[in-house]
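Let's study today's protein:

:::
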Amino acid sequence: MENQRFTPLPFMDPHTIKNIAEQNDTALKRIFGEKIRKNFLMQIKEQVLKKLGFDNLMKYYDFRWSDVEMVTGVGEAPEYDICRMIVGIHRAYSIFLSRREVRDNEKNDQYRRRLVTETVEKIQLRLYASSYFRKKALFSGEEFLYYPLPYELFAIAVKMSMLLKDNYGLKHWQFYYGILHNGLSALTLMEDNLPGGAYPLCRGMIEVYAKFLLLNRPEALSADYEKFRMYEVEQSCCSQRYPEEFYELFKKRSCQNAKSKADYLHFGWVDSIDGYHSIVTKVPYSVYGILAYLKFKNDSRISELEQLEYFYKACHAYTHGSVQAAIYPVLHYFEISIMLYYVIRGTFLLLCKELDIENSIDGNDVIAMIDRDFAVLYGQYERRSTDNFKNYYNYQKGVCESEKK
């Protein structure tokens, strides 16, 4: 049964199969007609199915019927899934383009081949990505999780979860898990068009990642971090009081100008790092202090760390409830994707290095994929402006109206 392949039933003559295919295409046009030009979508879908081939379609989509599917009504919907990928990739490439530029792309053979190739690429990752996605988002809106970069980041996160499940005894398992937990949670909120809730998660993820990068340096003492972590557990989860031993350490803290016990509880372990306070002279017991130290010690990561510091600050309003959503959702897509790119990419590379395995998924070079798609996204992000956002959403509205006619 494991190698069973789908074969048409005897009564399914070619004419019947053709009618079913036409009915499916009509339904797909109705579903996606407000997001993409219908005929363009159908043409790309057919090219994708041709390039993918029957055997690969069977490999990535399970057509077998079982008692589970019978009871739950949950089964594969390959053409629907593939169309969501096509729409996501095309819309991602179309951000801030003029109507003429989008139409030129749709007519361009090179662009069409690229769209087909990248859709097949996403299908090859779907067992780590879209196979987990909702058929329908909780709140209507753009399906950002099907845009290239979030889709690939989700796949990497799922791959990491599988690796962690099989390697529970890793030295920094808790850091990997903390980053993964927040990252996947943020992506899931993006999927349901609840981006405001993703920012506090991203802020927490950046904090864990900064600590993780510091503790991966040879001068850091993991034992001291663990000691302070247990103080934190005792204070927040058990007695609600600072342990006596913590009070003694606080009195002897390296930076006497820092008065906050809460800050010292979270970051006091940096006192054990030789030379830390000679480098970090402002807010040493904070994420900003750790990032300043990391930038000083590794100038090749300055750009990444400065980006994380900027977005860590930007998350503040969302974390404290001052802001829930921006006027233009695509801005959330930019910001959340950028934060997740730096952290998930860096964490995946660290995990693969620690496990001494290739940083790929089933032979697919996901690092090359996300680097390529990040370059596109970041280029668009740098072009952001009120006028460009307005034009983008006016164009999307125009697609809707033209397809209704």
Notes: Residues 1-7 have pLDDT under 50 and may be disordered. The radius of gyration is 25 Å. The chain is about 65% helix and 0% strand.
